[in-house]
Amino acid sequence: MIRSVNILLLLFAITISGCGGDDAAGSKRTVKTVPASGTLTLDDKPFGPIHIDLLPIEKKGDNVRTAKADVNADGTFVLGTYEEADGAAPGNYRVVLGNMGENLMEPPPAVQDTQVLVPEGGGDSIKIILKSAGKDAGAGSLLNPTIKKAK
């Protein structure tokens, strides 16, 4: 009886461990990433600390991956897709701001909708240039997005 329980536990452990090649979340790395880092500015000044997400604009099959980074106080960042700082898939992205401040607990400022390109070969000089949306976040800003009807 104890032997059969041990065998079942061993089979269970093998089953949940998988065959390798997965990322930390257990997903296969279906998208090739390239090294990607750079600077974030708001109204022409380095901006941070803040968390950013880059949402792919062009869908390439089922292999769509969001890139993310925690931006330093001096505005520098290194993008990650599967793991921290492992790069991003080449392509165009929409920039979405997350929480900001030392502990990433403050809400982000209202900014105009911003896009950025991660080049095919990657790069260490990617510039994300944010512009304030002003007191009243207008249509098309990240805090008041323009919603279009599906065709």
Automatic annotation (TrEMBL):
PROSITE patterns linked: PROKAR_LIPOPROTEIN
Top-level taxon: Bacteria
Identification of the protein by name: Carboxypeptidase regulatory-like domain-containing protein
Source species: Gimesia aquarii
